[in-house]
Amino acid sequence: MAELRSTKGEPTTPATDMYPRKILEYMEGFLISKTVFTSCELGVFDVLLTADRSLSAEEISQAVGASLDGTQRLLAACTGLQLLNTHWVNGKVFYSNTEQSRVFLTRSSPLSLCQSIQYSSRTIYLCWHYLTDAVREGRNQYEKAFGVSSKDLFQALYRSDEEMVKFMHLMNSIWNICGRDVVTAFDLTPFKVICDLGGCSGALAKQCTLAYPECTVTIFDLPKVVRVSGEHFVTEADQRISFHEAAAERLTAAGDFFKDSLPVADLFILARILHDWTDERCIELLCRIHKACKPGGGVLLVEALLNEDGSGPLTAQLYSLNMLVQTEGRERTSSQYAALLAASGFTNIQHHLTGKIYDTVLGHKET
User: Exposed end of the chain (fewer CB within 10 Å): N or C?
Assistant: First the structure.
């Protein structure tokens, strides 16, 4: 039998000898996500942290209020995912947290991702059920997933106080982990007065004040977001962080950065903002920022940047699909963001890859 060769003349593996390892991993990827989601929701990692010792499956099942059989299977999967350590004593297995699980998967940790995981499980995961529809229709799927109109993006995102708080916790956990990297990607020392547009929980504002002791940060967001931030996230100890109060009497419009007058600032930060919107809406917002920005000031974009040829990173490619499912926007390349900034009057545009999820693009307003 003649040897099979590719179009380039190289030998190929007969189809009968191939094993679709990657494809099978992709097919079952959701099983891993749901294992992590469920373990956090049940509080498995919290129970182990509180015990301060290794626990048996029986002890964990009783503590989380779950069946022994189900708990044993869940713990085995978490061990396979390297989220738990196992210890054998007299033929019986005991479990403890790995260091990563202790730091990122326990609710009491300052770097906890539990709230972010809960949002992924209860909101994003449901939206992705309609990914096929999103690709066919080219629009987000909030109406099908949650029965709410998506004409006003943030009315859909913040469709209840509970949902809004979940989203704010998501943002808080992200910037607790990635915030310092993005605010120090460029030297922002010259910018003393900073406005964090859509600043949500204030976590990125806190990272700014920690990295730059001379600066003050104003958080500009919707009134109900500002209210919850003041109640749950930003405390009196954060003296160099304030909230924009403009048009507070107009509860439906105050803090809407497409409608309200923006505060004057040396630097505007837009972290995970522009990826929510179309190019046209981005330019509309950036033109408003350019007008409010002091001469010699700038704007810092924080986004997951795609490679210029669109070939990756995979995380940014998947995030762009998520923007299709959830918003009006997309992830972009650094040159695409540079074009939006240039069209809005900004010059001397630079970008910096942090090596983590989020990167930065800095544009300047001429003096």
Answer: N
Q: What is the DSSP letter of 4?
A: P
Minimal CA–CA distance to 253: which of 242, 264, 244? 244
Query: Which one from 129, 232, 244, 275 is the annotated catalytic residue?
Result: 275
Q: Does 275 participate in catalysis according to the annotation?
A: yes
Per-residue pLDDT of the chain (367 residues; tens, 9 = 90+): 455 555 566 666 666 678 999 999 999 999 999 999 999 999 999 999 999 899 999 999 999 999 999 999 999 999 999 999 999 999 999 999 999 999 999 999 999 999 899 989 988 999 999 999 999 999 999 889 888 776 666 666 677 777 788 888 888 888 999 999 999 999 999 999 999 998 888 999 999 999 999 999 999 988 888 888 877 788 776 788 888 754 443 333 335 788 888 999 999 999 999 999 999 999 999 999 999 999 999 999 999 999 999 999 999 999 999 999 999 999 999 999 999 999 999 999 999 999 999 999 999 999 8
Contacts (Cβ under 8 Å, ≥6 apart) of 212: 183, 188, 189, 191
Largest pairwise CA distance in the chain = 82
Helix (H, G, I), strand (E, B) or coil at 322: helix
